[in-house]
């Protein structure tokens, strides 16, 4: 642990050195260990590398195929259209022949810029955008400043991952009247043939009118293999003559389009024939609107950057117009197969609900769109109502590998969904949504928990044979968080029924009032019926205090904190520390809250930009769930924001001594501003 801490302190010093003092940008020179930061728009995620013009991967949201013939679904890697090669005077630009290397993430505009000097011949920079306005496309804006007369050759590449089959790679020049449109394209089948994916790309020369073909550099098509499709041009540049061009691509699949090939062409043509300023200003305007919901920390630049980077990722991984949710790693990787877990409802949803109800609606609508499958699952397992899968994909069926007990027994997810639904209504007061989507969902969840509970001889109810939030303890009875979340979901169902003007099932209140929450002899909440002090993977009991408010007397809350915090395993995910931090902040203990806030993510940061891994001992960033947890510490802990029957209100905010002030902007539908000084 000591070595990890020393490595982290060194990383912090490096990060602070390269971070500009505006709170919006994070920069780095060349480093030995490198984890990139994704640029994403809620549909695609583009992950840069630390090599000139190289991109590690493109991830497609909600596009799945089976990982293997006998496996479960897995999110698709996209065909990588964000690859370029640049040659100057016949020499390929590579790591070994560049200097003055710098990469900068601008969180305000969601642009990732790389700059360097090639020998004594040219200064080069390029910025990668996953266009927020043209959601299936990306844009790489390149600038070359010659230091002497040079010859440049640029090559754009569509690189198709090996998991695709039967790629058809082409180059065609479309023409309509005087307008010519060169299109590089690859179309292929996904891993096991579930989807057809079409990817198109082209060059854009900003200073050249698209209708005057004779001004364009001559294009050369080179298909190395069907999996490596290339388009090149050459240009002579004079010293001091700044040359700008772009490479743009789009990727579509049969998940979203009947004809993904043609749609990908249309997106590229749209980008080609729109002026750069218009296209990028639209993208930046949409990000400006997202940042109306923001967190401003005065007095600690590093904390400001860390918090804003977390919020940047939640915005980048989601869209208000998609009715999609967010996987634990968002659009940064295929980790966890890109499936949707409780991470979405319990960890990422609350910050988004406070700062962007448009995106929050997308997350809850993702679940209501799959209510039918949840009802089928309940029937199939002998229950009533709706039973949600532990891991969900585009179908809404269970997507957890069969060997993982979580998929068969981690049932609190069903309550987590209903809790998110009721909180969405409390914040938005959207009665039409509650009647059409909210209450029908909450009712089915309540019916499930009535059927899932077992009545004991003393009249109490138990929920037996579950995996709780602490997944180190499978197949236990009366797990604290499962029982607490079921109680909360049942209580919310009664409230929702009254709100829409229908009669609540009396069984909901009957069961909710008698589900067991177990205690040790000294009054500490017991995690499950046979718990005896073992290590825990995740805060479980403490979730009954926040966010559930089932355990709320201060004596028990403190006992639970002091008992369970030392038992949290280092290899566990980051969110446990976040829960402890929120609770301490609400108890008025800013020192302990800040200690646990930093502990919830500091050991998980990876150089050079601070990407979060899931745990201190893992290397799988970016962990959007951890981002959601740390943001809840700031909003619900230090900021004192609570979701109540009156909407979002501020109660007892508290400021750590390390900060001069905290300002939370764009809260709730009224876009309120809350400050703590």
Folded structure, characterized:
With 677 residues, this protein is an alpha+beta fold. 32% of the residues lie in helices and 26% in strands. The chain has 16 helices and 27 strands. Strand 8 and strand 9 form a beta hairpin. Helix 5 packs antiparallel against helix 6. The longest helix has 22 residues, at 431-452. The protein is globular. It starts with a helix and ends with a strand. Residues 1-20 have low confidence and may be disordered.
Describe the SSE topology.
Elements: H1 2-18, E1 25-28, E2 39-40, E3 44-48, E4 55-66, E5 73-77, E6 80-88, E7 91-92, E8 98-106, E9 111-118, E10 122-130, E11 137-146, E12 150-159, E13 165-176, E14 179-189, E15 196-205, E16 219-225, E17 228-237, E18 243-253, H2 260-272, H3 276-290, E19 294-298, H4 301-316, H5 342-355, H6 357-368, H7 371-380, H8 405-409, H9 412-428, H10 431-452, E20 454-455, E21 461-462, H11 480-500, H12 506-512, H13 554-564, H14 575-586, H15 590-599, E22 605-606, E23 611-612, H16 624-638, E24 641-644, E25 647-650, E26 661-667, E27 672-676
Antiparallel strand pairs: 1-8, 2-3, 3-4, 4-5, 6-7, 6-12, 8-9, 9-10, 10-11, 11-18, 12-17, 13-14, 14-15, 15-18, 16-17, 19-26, 20-21, 22-23, 24-25, 26-27
Keywords: Hydrolase, Signal
Signal peptide: 1-21
Domain Glycoside hydrolase family 65 N-terminal: 39-195
